[in-house]
Design goal:
Elements lengths: L4 E9 L5 E10 L2 E6 L6 H8 L7 E6 L2 E2 L4 H5 L2 E4 L11 H11 L5 H10 L15 H13 L5 E5 L7 H14 L5 E6 L2 H7 L2 E6 L2 E7 H6 L5 E6 L2 H8 L3 E8 L2 E7 L9 E2 L4 H8 L7
Parallel strand pairs: 3-8, 3-9, 6-7, 7-8
Antiparallel strand pairs: 1-2, 1-4, 4-5, 9-10, 11-13, 11-14, 12-13
């Protein structure tokens, strides 16, 4: 598999003394690659470093073989970027906004604008003002401006946060289709379901450190056979359980509490086995429910 992104020993320290990224290294090939982590894990800082908005304090990043610091212009022509909060001009129409963003990239082709709007299912709303759009529609316009010119790398930061289930499914389809033909989509999110549906490979950041990089299947193997369901009578028992085991999740009903736990050393023979999920593996990486 051809490597499109190479991240080598990246560290980012801010002037206030905060270390947002600490010696991060991994590679990304074609397809959709997931970057998981809680808010504050360093995902957005890494995204901004990748797209040349922020310089790293140490280390190097190569995009399609080009160094982000020494060959920034070459890198930027190969990257499309949808930040978590994209500033839009509310008085512009959908078409005029995407056309304006295209011109900033040196693309003066109105047919190309119509083409990307059709791809994100927004062509019929081309004359509608940005201020009149729903949140999901604005995200689709955001994707349209990011993919204009069909860059090799598409970087998207929390694209489905706050969207309803129908829009989330639509977004997954958009990203999956774009990742064809050797292109790369780097999906930064804290929504495990999006990564599960789209990504064969992922990286997990935890407090600025790289906790895991590899396939989702290999990550799930780490918890296979160790996930159990334990019935509890009340909150007191739950508090006591959290001192002995990683609690992945809890559900409540009129009979008590059902705790989904990591039973690595078979300490709870009364618990029943459960099928492990990617979310189980992720919560386990993060230190359990009480730390999530």
């Amino acid at each position: 598999m051809h490597t499109n992104i190479e991240i080598n020993h990246i560290t980012k320290k801010y002037k206030n003394g905060v270390t947002a990224l600490d010696d991060i290294s991994f590679t990304v090939g074609s397809g959709v690659f997931g970057l998981l982590g809680h808010n504050g894990a360093g995902k957005t800082t890494l995204m901004k470093t990748l797209v040349t908005i922020l310089p790293p304090s140490a280390g190097t990043i190569r995009i399609c073989g080009y160094d982000t610091q020494k060959q920034g212009n070459e890198v930027r022509t190969r990257i499309g970027y949808l930040p978590q909060e994209l500033a839009m001009y509310p008085s512009l129409s959908v078409f005029d906004f995407v056309n304006y963003m295209a011109e900033l990239k040196g693309i003066r082709n109105k047919e190309a604008v119509r083409e990307v709007l059709e791809q994100v299912e927004m062509l019929e709303y081309a004359k509608r003002k940005i201020r009149e759009l729903s949140g999901g529609m604005k995200r689709r316009v955001g994707i349209a401006q990011a993919i204009i010119g069909y860059p090799q790398i598409l970087v998207v930061d929390e694209p489905t946060a706050g969207l309803d289930p129908e829009e989330r499914v639509r977004f997954r389809g958009l990203l999956s289709r774009y990742a064809r033909e050797g292109r790369t989509v780097l999906l930064s999110t804290h929504i495990v379901e999006d990564v599960f549906q789209l990504c064969e490979e992922l990286a997990v950041l935890r407090k600025g450190h790289l906790f895991y990089a590899g396939t989702s299947a290999a990550l799930m193997k780490q918890v296979k056979g160790k996930v159990k369901i334990l019935h509890l009578e009340d909150e007191r028992q739950l508090i006591d359980l959290q001192k002995k085991s990683i609690v992945l999740s809890t559900t409540y009903d009129r009979h008590g509490i059902h705790a989904r736990i990591m039973d690595e050393n078979a300490l709870f023979p009364q618990a029943t086995s459960a099928m492990a999920t990617l979310e189980d593996a992720y919560v386990y990486c993060m230190g359990g429910k009480i730390h999530a």
